[in-house]
Design brief:
Blueprint: H1 110-115, H2 123-161, E1 179-185, H3 186-189, E2 201-209, E3 225-226, E4 232-236, H4 243-248, E5 255-258, H5 259-266, E6 276-282, E7 285-289, H6 319-336, E8 345-346, E9 361-362, E10 365-373, E11 379-386, E12 388-391, E13 397-407, H7 418-421, H8 426-436, H9 438-451, E14 455-465, E15 468-480, H10 482-488, H11 493-508, E16 513-519, E17 525-531, H12 543-559, E18 564-567
Parallel strand pairs: 4-9, 4-18, 5-7, 5-11, 13-14
Antiparallel strand pairs: 1-17, 2-8, 2-10, 3-15, 6-7, 6-16, 10-11, 12-13, 14-15, 16-17
Length: 568
């Protein structure tokens, strides 16, 4: 038995264990293999088409039908691009050779060739068609060139005619010691809602009302009536200066305001001009006030128009002059349509703002103090107003709110001439006013709803002459029920109550002190500021604001001597 030769030790197979990388922080390899180091990586997606392995021709034979057929969604392969920025950065290649068009772009009359494809024409007809086509092409070019020139000329002309859009000024100057508590933009406010607000409860009624003259319901363009100048006193009293609210604040409610202030807050999302309201928190009570000697009580004109008035301050159609004109038209119209000289309907208590030394006749007005329970311990007390009373066919008395829409220049305010369309197309006139004065009409409607008016009367008052703002004529009247008109103008009272409740809740969480709500003059938002307690108290501290307010008050009489305005 022979012995097998022994295998040398160096020839015995050995098992070499692979190097395993242990990734303690995750999964996958921890390092890049040596053969793949310093190699650029082209990201790809599983959805990318796999095209040619190597394409040395570039875009010479590109697939025109599917240009991006093989393109990666992660972009082109710029990882392999070579950049050299030393000497070649200042070198530019100037190539003056004519670019050769591809075969499919050659030919000047491709459309005609397509149309004549398959037809053989004689040579003389073919040459005539080519000459005709060349002439048509030249005329088309000339016509296109002239059209472009006309459009460019019209655009430059419109730019010259349109006044530049000016940044509006804030109603009050924000000082450095004021701190911003909250910024509320209009889209967020428009989503608020407080449904199922309980009906208001009347607390007390003050003042006296005159009866509405129904003959003004028959006024039309053909039988217009001139607007009279009626010298009566209108009291514009803020919340904390009201003696009735001061008395009620001791026993009832914890939030106090007037209907004008509430309407401004509730319709804030429709406003474009800046306004401000002062809020004073004392314990668990909030008082909403307007600042003294401001233009808060002036009515805006074409505030929500596409092109609001932007004339200079001394112009007849400047925003300030139009506001003064609209305010005094409302004062005189609301008194002219009443049966003056007849006995008034007296409320439970007399007008609280008539002093013993009052000189002159006070306007027909009834103050209705009402209470709303807004849940969660929030009880609102507000002073609302009625302008007149009306006795219907059944003998029942109806409280009405009287307002006037005014036409100043139809060419500058929408192009709807009232004297031509008011009798036949009153809906078009009202639609134009809703577009240009959406905020003003919404505030009037909210005031009528808060006061509990049975009707709201609108008067259409126009200038006797376009360039004279001192003489006006009444062209017609129109009446609505406040809730029905609110539905027509898309006014959601649940949203209005939600905006008010949101501001009340924010202010209730603050410490005792004075705060200010201001509409940003150029942005759709309102801001809540924490202001020092002595702000607006001293005339020396607010010299600028008081001076402007005094000028506004002084401008009432010389410009429009229709009526008197008394601030308390």
């Amino acid at each position: 038995m022979t012995e097998e030769p022994a295998v040398p030790v160096e020839e015995i197979a050995h098992f070499k264990a692979p190097v395993i990388q242990d990734n303690v922080n995750g999964w996958g390899p921890c390092d890049v293999p040596d053969q793949f180091k310093d190699m650029p990586y082209q990201p790809f997606s599983k959805g990318d088409r796999l095209g040619k392995i190597s394409d040395w021709t570039g875009a010479a034979f590109q697939d025109k039908k599917y240009a991006n057929k093989y393109a990666s969604q992660f972009g082109s392969g710029t990882q392999y691009a070579y950049y050299h920025d030393e000497d070649e950065s200042t070198f530019h290649l100037v190539d003056t050779t004519r670019v050769q068009k591809p075969p499919y772009q050659r030919g000047r009359f491709r459309q005609m060739q397509r149309a004549m494809r398959g037809r053989q024409l004689p040579r003389h007809l073919n040459s005539q068609l080519q000459v005709l086509a060349r002439g048509m092409k030249t005329r088309d070019k000339d016509r296109l060139r002239s059209q472009r020139k006309w459009v460019r000329h019209q655009g430059m002309r419109n730019m010259r005619n349109q006044p530049p859009i000016k940044n509006r000024d804030a109603s009050v100057t924000v000082r450095s010691d004021w701190s911003t508590i909250e910024e509320m933009d209009f889209p967020r406010l428009a989503k608020l809602s407080l449904p199922n607000v309980k009906e208001a409860v009347d607390v007390t009624l003050c003042g006296s009302l005159e009866y509405y003259d129904k003959t003004y319901d028959r006024v039309n363009v053909k039988s217009e009536k001139p607007l009279q100048r009626i010298d009566r006193i209108f009291h514009t009293v803020t919340t904390t200066d009201d003696p009735i609210i001061r008395k009620l604040s001791k026993t009832e409610g914890n939030v106090y305001a007037t209907d004008a202030i509430l309407a401004t807050i509730m319709c804030s999302t429709r406003s474009n001009y800046s306004w401000d309201i002062v809020i004073e928190k004392i314990g668990d009570k909030l008082f909403f006030d307007k600042r003294d000697n401001t233009e808060f009580d002036l009515l805006t004109v074409n505030e929500t128009s596409v092109e609001p008035p932007q004339d200079e301050s001394n112009s007849l159609n400047s925003p300030r002059s139009l506001a003064l004109e609209a305010t005094f038209i409302n004062h005189n119209f609301s008194q002219q349509v009443l049966k003056m000289g007849e006995p008034r309907l007296k409320m439970d208590e007399p007008n609280p703002f008539i002093s013993e030394d009052e000189e002159g006749e006070v306007a027909s007005v009834a103050y209705r103090y009402r209470k709303w329970d807004l849940d969660n311990g929030v009880v609102l007390i507000a002073r609302c107003e009625h302008d007149a009373v009306l006795q219907n066919v059944n003998g029942e008395l109806q409280y009405i709110t009287i307002k006037a829409l005014n036409e100043w220049d139809s060419k500058l305010s929408g192009g709807v001439e009232w004297r031509q369309k008011l009798d036949t197309q009153r809906g078009a006139v009202l639609a134009n006013e809703l577009r240009n004065n959406a905020c003003k009409l919404a505030k009037w409607t909210v005031q009528a709803i808060l006061a509990g008016s049975d009707q709201i009367k609108f008067g259409y008052v126009s200038r006797a002459h376009v360039r004279d703002s001192s003489k006006h004529v009444i062209l017609g009247t129109q009446q609505y029920k406040p809730h029905e008109f609110a539905t027509q103008i898309n006014l959601n009272m649940d949203n209005a109550w939600g905006i008010l409740r949101c501001i009340v809740d924010i202010c209730m969480k603050q410490k005792d002190g004075k705060y200010l709500i201001m509409k940003d003059p150029n942005k759709p938002m309102i801001r809540l500021y924490d202001i020092p307690d002595n702000t607006f108290d001293s005339e020396n501290e607010d010299g600028d604001e008081d001076d402007s307010g005094d000028k506004a008050t002084e401008a009432f009489q010389p410009l429009y001597p229709y009526s008197s305005v008394k601030r308390i």
